[in-house]
Amino acid sequence: MPHNQRLSALEKALAVLEAVADQPQAVGLPDLAARLNLPRQTVHRVLGQLEEAGLVLRDPSRERYSIGTRQTRLALATLCSKNQLALLKLLLQGLVDEIKETCNIGVLDGLDYVYLVRIECKWPLRTHLEAGSRIGAHMVSGGKVLLSQLEPDRCRRLLRARKLEAATSRTITLPAELEVEFAKTRGRGFALSNEEFLDGIIGVAVPIRDASGRALAALAMHGPVARLSLKTCEAHVPRLLRTAERLAKAWISH
Predict the structure, then answer these.
(1) At 4, is the pLDDT very low, low, confident or very high (cuts 50, 70, 90)?
(2) Which of 2, 51, 98, 135 is the most exposed place for a label (fewest CB within 10 A)?
(3) pLDDT tens, 99-127?
């Protein structure tokens, strides 16, 4: 009997969850069964249980599976857990000390950008948002860089799932225009926000990637146009990328 077929029910469920999460797009039953070396009927039964629990989502039109909302909430709760944030805060503080502007680490939750960690700069002119705050992902550089990393079909469905609100006259709210913006972001490796969330505030963000290259979170900085320009933001990208690499290593090894 193949080794995978001797796994416990819990181990099989975890293996299926990991296999679904590892795919860049929704995946079908035959592909999952082949990847896991498990009988189709076994994988189908596990997927049904995971779907009932909200851990995977089934697209009935194509019989393909993707990560469910409960799985996303669990992942978000894990990322926000205080028992792993100390080292991340230390690394983020080092970046803030270096560039003298507010920086944050955030993740996607649907179309929201959720701040996990924020460290404010020492300048009196600054914006203040608590960790846990949610902002429309299409408005801020951190959200934009993460949306740009999604599988295109999934991103397209997200952008059309609800009306995108405008926070300023510069906020991009048309899905087609955002898709063009995301293509530019993928090409250059970072996202910019040009007064799209708050008038007078600009920012830049890079992805924090795991060993496989998948974006785990975003590392972003922002500040007022009185001190920053978009050109200055771009000049900080190498520093952000170096810190993002250190954050990824700390995150994975913790």
Answers:
(1) low
(2) 2
(3) 999 999 998 888 899 888 888 877 765 56
**HSE of 253 in the Cβ direction (CA atoms, 13 Å)?**
8
The confidence score (pLDDT) of residue 161 equals: 82
Strand arrangement of the beta sheet that strand 64-67 belongs to: 27-28, 64-67, 56-59
Q: Coil, helix or strand for 186?
A: helix
Both 155 and 51 in a single domain? no
Same domain membership, residue 212 and residue 88? yes
CA separation for the pair 82, 39 (Å, rounded): 40
pTM for this entry: 0.71
Predicted confidence band at 84 (pLDDT cuts at 50, 70, 90)? low
Its domain, for residue 41, covers 3-67
Over the range 153-172, which residues count as b (16 or more CB within 10 Å of their CB) and which as e?
Answer: eebeebbeeeebeebeeebb
Query: Can you tell me the mean pLDDT for 59-68?
Result: 78
Residues 42 and 91 in one domain: no
Per mean pLDDT, which of 9-18, 24-33, 161-170 is the most reliable?
161-170
Same domain? 89 vs 58 = no
29 and 129 together in one domain = no
117 shares a domain with 61: no
Strand 64-67 relative to strand 102-109, pairing: unpaired
CATH no. for residue 26?
1.10.10.10
Number of domains in the chain: 2
d(CA 76, CA 10): 22
